[in-house]
């Protein structure tokens, strides 16, 4: 089954956001350029929008995540989970054309199953559900 361009873009954005946490000296654009040859332009374009959006709204996104997380500080969350959450919250709450919350949550959960730990999917699901209920 071929992944949708948007799912691929979310995964690509996740990989780049994850990498930039460990190597902040490498620009996201440099990392995106590496993938540009192997994926469709539509995918890299949406991934770029997600990356720039998450980076520009990071403080507000993290505040929403923190407000919905009673027991976890954002900086103590697993790096993969934190970045999956950031992408989903950006798409739900901050994107120029926000996507439906249930779609953002389902996408984040599927990506968490693929890239996270065995607990990641339920953690991401529960936290994003709280974010979606908060106004």
Quick description:
With 135 residues, the protein is mostly helical. It has helices at residues 5-22, 28-36, 41-56, 58-68, 79-94, 101-115, 120-133. It has seven helices and no strands.
Task: Describe this protein's structure.
This protein has one domain: NusB-like (N-utilizing Substance Protein B Homolog, Chain A, Orthogonal Bundle), CATH 1.10.940.10. The longest helix has 18 residues, at 5-22. It has seven helices and no strands. The relative contact order is 0.14. The radius of gyration is 14 Å and the shape is globular. The protein is mainly alpha-helical and 135 residues long. It starts with a helix and ends with a helix.
Summarize the main sheet.
none
Helix content: over 70%
Q: Which spans of ≥5 residues are poorly predicted at pLDDT below 50?
A: none
- State the CATH class: Mainly Alpha
Query: Helix/strand-derived class?
Result: mainly alpha
Count of beta strands = 0
The helix/strand order is: HHHHHHH
CATH fold-level name: N-utilizing Substance Protein B Homolog, Chain A
The overall pLDDT average reads 92
Q: Radius of gyration, rounded?
A: 14 Å
Portion in strands: under 5%
User: If helices are DSSP runs of H or I spanning 4 or more residues, what is the number of helices?
Assistant: 7
**Number of discrete domains:** 1
CATH superfamily: NusB-like
What is the correct CATH architecture?
A: Orthogonal Bundle
Tell me the span between the first and last alpha carbons.
36 Å
General shape: globular
GO biological process, one term: DNA-templated transcription termination
Pfam family, one: NusB
Keywords: RNA-binding, Transcription, Transcription antitermination, Transcription regulation
Family: Belongs to the NusB family.
């Amino acid at each position: 089954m071929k992944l949708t361009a948007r799912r691929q873009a979310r995964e690509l954005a996740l990989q780049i956001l994850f990498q930039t946490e460990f190597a902040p000296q490498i620009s996201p654009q440099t990392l995106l350029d590496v993938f540009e040859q192997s994926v469709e332009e539509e995918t890299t374009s949406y991934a770029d929008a997600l990356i720039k959006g998450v980076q520009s709204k990071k403080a507000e996104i993290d505040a929403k995540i923190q407000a919905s997380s009673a027991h976890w500080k954002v900086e103590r969350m697993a790096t993969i989970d934190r970045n999956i959450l950031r992408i989903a919250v950006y798409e739900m709450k901050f994107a120029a054309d926000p996507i439906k919350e249930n779609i953002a949550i389902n996408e984040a959960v599927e990506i968490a199953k693929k890239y996270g730990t065995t607990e990641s999917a339920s953690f991401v699901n529960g936290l994003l559900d709280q974010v979606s209920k908060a106004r």
